[in-house]
């Protein structure tokens, strides 16, 4: 197993002054190379992928990044033990005697907690092995937009084999992180296990696009449907519905389907915004051309009248 790196900047190959866009770009490039789905059976790449995902989870959050840069937490977002001890005394009376409180009954246990060792015999007392919490694990999971909107059952593969099952809640947004309590690395000496953190990436959909709680879709309509009006079948995330296109509808007209958008956290759903796109026949139609020529001669119409671009 590769040795774990402790600097998220080095893991992502970015400078400490990198912008959020630079960090995201670096992560996406590495994820494409190391993703377990692209490297089946390669435990080393799977471990690397987990490390860069953990680094991105840390640096993509401004508050977590600030705390890491200040030395308050490590790459696994765990409070640094030595800071836990000194913070308790930061505002104490300088002349006061420093007591090893809250479980630090002797120097042996303090150094064991601070530096990841164990309290043992000798001058530091005899306290035996310490119970230590397991490290957290970080994963990256890609889901389709439909799965993100409607919810799904998924699994995450582990580097050493095995899988973690999880439920994607309906309405989850791109970039959200799910916490699975107790699904991280096992603890040491009977300590509790760490947690698993799964960052969800929502893949683009060829038909639907999400905009907050709303869903957008472009609907192709024929010139006859736009001029005369029509009832058109429209796909939604939970089945097809009929949409009435009013007569004399221009391309670009937006129509709203109430409650057909993304599920909201507090209940209900957003709307679906349907944009009409007039599509002409694939081949020239002489009959259509003659009809339009006759119409143009008798009904002069300037489609750019009132258009701001016409005055430039």
Question: Nutshell version of this structure?
Answer:
Helices cover 28% and strands 22% of the residues.
Topology:
Blueprint: H1 8-12, H2 20-34, H3 43-59, H4 62-69, H5 81-88, H6 107-115, E1 137-143, H7 145-150, E2 152-157, E3 163-168, E4 177-180, E5 196-202, E6 209-211, E7 214-222, H8 223-228, E8 230-236, E9 239-245, E10 254-257, E11 272-279, H9 286-298
Parallel strand pairs: 1-5, 7-11
Antiparallel strand pairs: 2-3, 4-5, 6-7, 8-9, 10-11
How would you describe this structure to a colleague?
This is J domain-containing protein. With 312 residues, the chain is an alpha+beta fold. Among the domains are: 134-204, HSP40/DNAj peptide-binding domain, CATH 2.60.260.20; 209-301, HSP40/DNAj peptide-binding domain (Sandwich), CATH 2.60.260. It is built from 9 helices and 11 strands. It has helices spanning 8-12, 20-34, 43-59, 62-69, 81-88, 107-115, 145-150, 223-228, 286-298, and strands spanning 137-143, 152-157, 163-168, 177-180, 196-202, 209-211, 214-222, 230-236, 239-245, 254-257, 272-279. The protein has a 4-stranded mixed β-sheet. A 3-stranded mixed β-sheet has the order 1-5-4. Helix 2 (20-34) packs antiparallel against helix 3. The longest helix has 17 residues, at 43-59. 21% of the residues are buried.
